[in-house]
């Protein structure tokens, strides 16, 4: 991926988190087959995160997500 990916949140599994007014946990995440390499902003550990998309009507959102630890997710968006 060519853009710059920015950390948006570190959340607990299932915690409400909205992107463009859509709670990401309310949708099936479709894996795009792409991934990014990031560092946890708090501890600096490197992670390879998959890039997903969710779609509702004419809204499509892409984001990267992965577990930093058990049930603790890092969410990134391309800027």
UniProtKB/TrEMBL annotation:
Protein name per Swiss-Prot or TrEMBL: Uncharacterized protein
């Amino acid at each position: 991926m060519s853009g710059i990916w920015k950390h948006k949140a570190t959340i607990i599994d299932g915690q409400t988190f909205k992107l463009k007014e859509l709670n990401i946990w309310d949708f099936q995440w479709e894996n795009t087959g792409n991934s990014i390499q990031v560092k946890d902003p708090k501890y600096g550990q490197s992670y390879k995160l998959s890039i997903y998309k969710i779609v509702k009507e004419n809204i499509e959102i892409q984001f990267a997500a992965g577990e930093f630890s058990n049930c603790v997710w890092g969410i990134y968006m391309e800027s």
